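As described in the Methods, two query proteins were run sequentially through the folding procedure within a single session, without resetting any intermediate state between them. The first query and its resulting structure tokens are shown here.
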Amino acid sequence: MKVIIIGCTHAGTSVAQQILKTHPETAVTIYERNNNISFLSCGISLYLGGTVKALEDMFYATPQDLKDLGAQVHTQHDVYKIDVAKKQVLVDDLLSERKFVDQYDKLVITTGSVPVVPPIQGVSLPNILICKDYADATKIAATARVKKHIAIIGGGYIGVELAESYSNTDHQVTLINGLHPLLSHYVDTDFSEKVAADLAAHGVKLKLNETALKFDSDEQHVYIQTDQAEHQADLAVICVGFRPQTDLLAGQIKLNQDGSIHVNRYMQTSDPDVYAAGDAVAVHFNPTQEDAYTPLATNAVRQGLLVGMNIFQPTLPDIGTQATSALHLYGKTLASTGLTLARAQSHGFTAAVASLTDNYRPEFMPSTTPIDMRLVYDRATHKILGGQLYSEYDVAQSANLLSVCIQNENTIEQLAFVDMLFSPYYDRPFNYLNQLGLAAMAQESAVKP
């Protein structure tokens, strides 16, 4: 069987490895526009901040690795047309400029996402950069070495991480964010305000509730005109989100309204011989039981693995996602999963939030530290819909536990009384997540803790 994979970052790499591991006789051909594969773009801020010493360390596979497994890997090859009816792809060799046609039995779309570029004047001027891939990271790092004042446009994970990295490396940083609070897709307003306070405490100048309208530049500076003021910097980095890269498939397979690919639980598109995974695809979002566009590396790797398992015959269905994620900020961990209260209410849930701040272990220990916690739940069913944690204590795995709770449709009562270990080194006799469940129960007047 001939399988063509278009795109080879997280999902594409995972697909190829799984197919060739279990069905090494398969003819796997990979077309990738860039000259590299498997770049962990989530580590860009770590490199800029000096935690990671080389960008090359953030590749976890090479083209040669996949060739050694038996794949034909063609980097710097752009697939510029797909004909699903004829089972053909039209390819442009970007080095030789030779164009050719290739035929497949099964096609895998792992084309990923592209940055959202605001349709405003001056966005392509010098000293205005986008943050997405290895090439972008190289440009940003080289430019930032000689630039003192960095303006970040966008207050999502990438924008906040870049602001932290630059503020830790003797840069002046201005963060401009409009329309929504910082990290609003992941946390509610009170946690967003805590993040803003920590950024400000470390010297980041926050220009919140401002929308960039126009860019201008000269050889040395960038000028950002917002709806409220003009700001000057030496370099501007735009990171306002991503959109699925699926233009080649319009009118050929089923796409969602946002352009993401609709797949079934076996990662199969509306065409039975076309599969898709990663940032090009909408995931099944368990808190709402609906498709949702959630471009995360974790989703991409899992979905790629599932494509490799299911492309020969339906074997293992996708169980969906809670969009669980975490952010490291000035020694603190911000972790979240599922729905925020605002998003839960917008989806029609009669939702409520239980909030609790408590030390993670007893005060008689040599040290302890508080954890700020939020638990979002449905008042009608008491099912857990989301959770958010922020602390100097590493709470990342606690978000994973709450993710499992959402996955399994657990209630606040089950969280309150689920068996967890006790040791003064790690927690109290009632773990802090048990306590959070009890707080939700008390709020619903089910029991008095």
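Immediately afterward, the second query was submitted; its sequence and tokens are:
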Amino acid sequence: MVPARSTGASGALDIAHRLTEICGPRFARLAGPADEAAGRAARWVAVPGGPRAAARVLRLAARHDLTVVPRGAGTKIDWGAVPERLDIMLDTGRLAGIGHQTPDRGTVEVGAGTPLRAVQATLERTGQRLALDAPSPGATVGGVLAADEAGPLRHRHGTACDQLVGLRYLDADGDLTEAGGGAAGLAQARLLCGSEGALGVLVSAVLRVQAVPATRIWVTRPVWTPLEVHDLIRAVLAARLDPAAVELDLPVSPGFRLPWDPRAVAMANHPSMTGRASTAGCASTGPTGAGSLVVLLEGGPAEVAERADRLVGLFGARSTVARSAPPWWRSYPFAPGDTALRLEVPVTDLHAAVYALRDATGGPVPVRGSAGLGVVHAALPGGMPPDRVAAVLAAVRSVLLARRGRCVVLAAPPAVRRAVDLWGEPVDLARLRAVKQHLDPGHRLSPGRLPGGL
């Protein structure tokens, strides 16, 4: 059989017809302009109505040597590396629903295509929740797991993968596998976390649930420098306040511009300019105004109030207390078109990571995230030249390497994505290669999306 990758219009229509037979007339089609992953366009879109139909799509792909990239709500479809090929975009939107709940075990089974906010709304009616607050609006449970995405609540509860009890997924040949029910099964299930659909197509997940906290209080302290943040976080963690989240927001003043002209930067940094205002057209690299360090406290009314009083005493008179989150809470500092970074470093070295980023870029950049864990996100302007981004990454990674940290490019403009190493130092690439070879030896699932081009 001739591989479908080389078929003409008649072959493409034949594949579309077969997908229509599997998924139904309204749920299979030739791909359109919006059907892409990190800039790689798909050829067909299939929206199977259940696990069996999804398995048939994968078997069709195997017969015709087609590649498959799963897609949930598409909120993170541009994260990661560009797929080497993208034949079928497998939309999981119909693999949705909230299934079996086990009250005695405190778990719930959720279809991979179910929006996280729909799960939370359903559980809230019974006074329960998933301790998940992924920043991507509209994200599905499968998408959160596939990207190992987490929000502020990761400080106490970990990521979605940390709360995983079991998983059902389809392998590259369309065989349904259940993983969980013990240490070995759980380890197998967690292999798929963060795999961007390159190791299997998620069908459903069993996740832990918990009671909705009776009281939630956000205590905010304005901050001006990364070193100040470092000292405050140390004090918060030492005070044993049991925070649910410790989040940092370091914005950039609206009028600030990073200086990209090398000659202007050299002039501004010349010793003769010491103590003078820059005349080279460079924006100031001094303080850009207050950021915020915010601590979320959850629990019973009396004990939360007691902990909040202690935290206010620690933060001082400039702190404020609120029963709602600040506007930037559970959101990323980057916008579409930016180069989006994730920095991971031991919390004691977070200030060094932020200073390294500022030094490498020539000025402040927006930083936001879980400062209490040393996991934050940052944004470089989309207009920054690719070679400049590469230089920034090299400088930051050299600092982080000595501190057991890493800097990952989550998303970037096409020219930047082609010019830089998205991953930096891969984590156990040999093991990842072995897992890929075991689960997807034909490299048909999201090929090239993982580190090392896997």
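Residues 199 and 391 are 32 Å apart (CA to CA). We note this only descriptively and draw no conclusion about the first query from it.
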